[in-house]
Amino acid sequence: MHFYAGIAVGPFLLVVALSGALYALSTPVERMIYSDELTAPISGEALPLADQVSAATDYVGQEETLVAVRPAPEPGETTRVMYSGTDLGESETRAIFVDPATAEVRGDLTTYGTSGALPVRTWIDQLHRGLHLGDFGRNYSEFAASWMAVVALAGIGLWVARAVTSRSRREALLPRRDVSTRRGTLSWHASGGIVLALGMLFLSATGITWSQHAGTHVTDLRAALGWTTPAVTTQLGEETAVPDEHAGHAGHGGGESGHPSAEPGTADPAMFDHALEMGQAENIDSTNVEILPPTSEDTAWVVQEIQRSYPTMVDSVAIDMGDMEIVDRVDFEDFGLMAKLARWGVDIHMGTMFGLVNQIAVALVALAIAAMVVLGYRMWWQRRPTRGGTARVGKPPARGALQAAPWWGIGLVALVALAIGLFLPMVGFGLIGFLVVDLMVQARRTDRSPH
Known about the structure:
By secondary structure, the protein is an alpha+beta fold. Helix content is 52%, strand content 10%. The strands form two sheets. It has a four-stranded antiparallel beta sheet. A four-stranded antiparallel beta sheet has the order 5-6-7-8, with helices on one face. A hairpin with a 4-residue loop joins strand 7 (316-320) and strand 8.
């Protein structure tokens, strides 16, 4: 299993590892490339969000649909005012970067996903996920993520068998200095692989959650077990769906709170300040915040934290701005354990949990995985037959392991393989492919054997 998977999946692992290392380091690179858009001179107190949103809307035109606002998290950073567009791809928005102190527009870029990736990071992300081939290309990353765990587990089994037969622990744990021979390459591949095994299993498990086919099964399983991530309810009741036409006009008066009210389904710039103020009074503590206006007349405003670094701050609150009332709230501390682990796992995978340290660690693990693939191919090449002056590729390992196993062992392997193949389709297709190749190799050897 380790041999066939290593040979067939190796190229996919190599690409996904190298592109993953590139993505892990893309965030600091992004801040350097787009420093003009992301930063602004500190020149005074921030203007109300209403002024910043109005400046962005004047820049793009009234026909654009405003979908979110991310206020400047810190002094010296810009506010993102985000719009939808017909020429944008899935999960993309048009972001206008505004100087919070002067309302000057400092940039106009396409952003992607909840992480707000800018064009360079988006390009690297799409390369990592699908080689820029759309949904079809995503099969490659799912194939690599699914088989990475299988390769790691099979490698652990081989290392344990090697450790049992080794003369000393040092021989099992530490690589040889000489890599000119197959045995030396094997020692580096095995020692490095056992150190990386935990990282490979983690990246595989978290990467599968984004996949097309297995990711759907993961989502269904989490729903069945009650491990879903809670979200605020934005649907307004009939009593709040129709606004009071006498509640106030143009931001003046209205409501016992002294704040102007707004019709649900509108994105009046003045409402962003009041939505943020109400959210901060309820459960919004982070400066990394996103404000979402209602998408229809019967939905609420949402103010949510988007701080994915430690400590995780992703609390959210839904607000009926017509009545100036809190509709719903969700706090991260109330998440179930599995929902928290899923959040932390994704953030560590993306390198956002612990900032630059996390990004460097993920990049190093990814580069080390690529090195293990190269060492595996080197070992295979060193194993090749060279007699007779003809160099051929390395031969496969000895056959007959399943044939020598007891019937219950074969049945157990078959059941496990079937279960894994159904849950992880790319593993299932790979298993079928390896079985076909193995049978073809056996048939060829049988034909060549003397009768």
